[in-house]
Specification:
Blueprint (H helix, E strand, L loop, with lengths): L9 E5 L4 H12 L3 E6 L2 H10 L6 E5 L5 H15 L4 E4 L14 H29 L2 E6 L3 H4 L5 H21 L4 E8 L2 E2 L1 H4 L3 H8 L8 E2 H12 L10 E4 L6
Parallel strand pairs: 1-2, 1-4, 2-3, 4-5, 5-6, 6-9, 7-8
Helix pairs in contact: 1-9, 3-4, 4-6
Length: about 250
């Protein structure tokens, strides 16, 4: 019988207490990984780690991804607990939607900081550790909003487009160290946040999807698994759209 795809590997995932991040953690554990969950809410992330099987499989660490010291501590927790860092998933994010006319400078700065600076912190700090071991996989979560631009999301679209450019530039810098960096652009994914949309907005988005349905968090997790594993061993600097065909 073949080994699980992530046998004996350690993954760090930000924004992992719920939603897409938690689904990725579940999938990685199913495939043999030990997982360090990072999230801004200390209590929630620790409970999430307990649900995933506790210290043998997962630990939860409070982390503000905009704080480089917090990111250092998150990665050090992986090294201290599991003695390795093989996979980094930069998933943490927030939304502060508003039209450009009404958006405040603070709302713009918050979204850029969490998504773009947070991904930069996670990418550069994980890569610094991985280069010593001459291998590693980094997966960054962008969004379809970063490809097409969505009304009310000048901050979010800018940040998510920036993650694509960051991932490609960083991938070129570290490829010769055996580190691969790829990005995922989810479309409309069924989460508590998206299901709270007004029905009219939800139906409008659904009408744009050729496959006729929203995606599930498990479907993003499966693509993250592919990019984190040796199945994608000759891929770096790529962006995979997981959208049901929306905005092809």
């Amino acid at each position: 019988m073949s080994q699980p795809l992530l046998h004996n590997r350690t993954a760090v995932i930000t924004g992992a207490a719920q939603g897409i991040g938690y689904a990725i953690a579940e999938k990685f554990i199913e495939e043999g990984a030990r997982v360090v969950l990072g999230d801004l809410d200390a209590d929630t992330v620790k409970l999430a780690a307990e649900r995933l099987g506790g210290p043998d499989k997962a630990i939860g660490v409070r982390c503000n991804v905009t704080d480089s010291g917090d990111v250092d501590a998150l990665l050090q927790a992986a090294l201290d607990t599991y003695d390795s860092l093989d996979i980094m998933v930069n998933n943490a994010g927030i939304t502060r939607d508003a039209t450009m006319r009404t958006m405040t400078e603070e709302q713009f700065d918050q979204v850029i900081s969490v998504h773009l600076k947070g991904t930069w912190n996670g990418t550069r700090k994980a890569a610094a550790i991985m280069r010593e071991r001459k291998r590693g996989a980094i997966v960054n979560l962008s969004s379809l909003s970063g490809k097409v631009g969505l009304v009310g999301q000048t901050n979010y679209s800018a940040a998510k487009a920036g993650i694509v450019g960051l991932s490609k530039a960083a991938a070129k810098e570290v490829a010769h160290h055996g580190i691969r960096i790829n990005a995922i652009q989810p479309g409309l994914i069924r989460t508590p946040m998206t299901e709270a949309m007004p029905e009219k907005v939800w139906e409008q988005k659904m009408a744009e999807i050729p496959m006729g349905r929203a995606g599930e968090v498990s479907e993003i997790a499966s693509v993250a698994l592919f990019l984190a594993s040796d199945l994608s061993s000759y891929m770096t600097g790529t962006v995979l759209e997981v959208t049901g065909g929306r905005f092809m």
